[in-house]
Amino acid sequence: MKQRATVVGLMGAGITALLIGVHAEAAKAPTVGIEHFTYAPATLTVSVGTRVTWVNHDEEPHTVTSATGAFASSGLVNEDSFAQTFGKPGTYQYFCALHPHMKATVVVR
Amino acid sequence: MDRIDRRGFLECMAWAGTGVVWAAAGGVLSSRPIGRAEAAAAAGGFSFVQISDTHVGFKGEANKDAAATLQQVVDRVNALRPAPAFVLHTGDQTHGQKAGAFDTVAEILKGVRAERVFYVPGEHDVFLDGGREYLSRYGQGTVGGRGWQSFDYQGTHFVGLVNVLRYKGEGMGSLGDEQIEWLEKDLTPLSSSTPLVIFAHVPLWAVYPKWGWTTEDAGRALGYLQRFGSVTVLNGHVHQVLRKVEGAISFHTAMSTAFPQPAPGSAPAPGPMKIPETEARRMIGVTDVTYVPGTHPLAVVDSTLG
User: Fold this and answer.
1) Cα torsion at B25, B26, B31, B35 (round to 10°)?
2) Number of A:B CB contacts under 8 A?
3) Is a pLDDT exceeding 50 seen at residue B293?
């Protein structure tokens, strides 16, 4: 997977951005950025056992809170990060407890 | 102060940006800027201070130390002569509910020379634990320990409402049926000539629903206020001064003591404005005055730190 992501990284800029999104999801340590009240990518697909890290780039606190209570971060602010390892396949929806309109999904295969 | 400390009234939020001093005389509320105490010690009336959105723990471009700006506001309050009767903190004491943040706010507010500080929570105070810590500190003496309350002071009836504990869905504030029903009962015995002051964190009017700057079920609560001749609604949350008058109801949002937020819809999202501290000080310190025509004119003056 890492190899593929590297190859993609050498491609043209516009396409790169698109494809890295796809392939980075499958990498071993994918990161979801939180910026301007948005999780990016909004949907992240990973394989079972992947550890996902979120980093909040906003000055406003955000959380990574599972809609089902499966996981929950504390209040993240100023580059704080939170990591969660996904041991079972499934679709994990999460939101920000402080701004509940912020929603995103992790798909584990 | 000793009494306040013992009761724990002073442990609470930090107020961001602005201190507003209110003076009540004969049922007419007016306000004056902090630091100009000689202006309006309304004859036979009283004054109180509203502070809001202290966001202790915030550290950003607009303010490197929200605790320091809170301390500056305390110093200004303490310079008032006569001293305000009490302080209303309208929420968001802490920025991220980090361990120790409530303690920091409490420590700073112990220095306020007022009889008491009344609190309502902001969503930043309760989002991690559903309000457990906040209510353990400030729930005592409130209705069922739930955080909402009312009290009378020299003929004016004050109501503190909680609209951040059901902060779901699209991120709007919400009061809930139980609290609204309590409000109706609370107001029932009052004469319509009783001046009312309602305070809560999220605006009780639709400032900008797209950013959650409204309270979804406020309409029902406001319905019970219609018969009163003088109603002043004090909110925080939006970190800027906004006003609206609807009949005898005058709405006012306070500045933060920590950082400004963009005007409604003027940015892709709400949140701390990324501007230099010197500029931010002026935005948490813009003095403005409004005279509301009618039987009960209301003048609101907000003072800034910069």
Assistant:
1) 0
2) 57
3) no
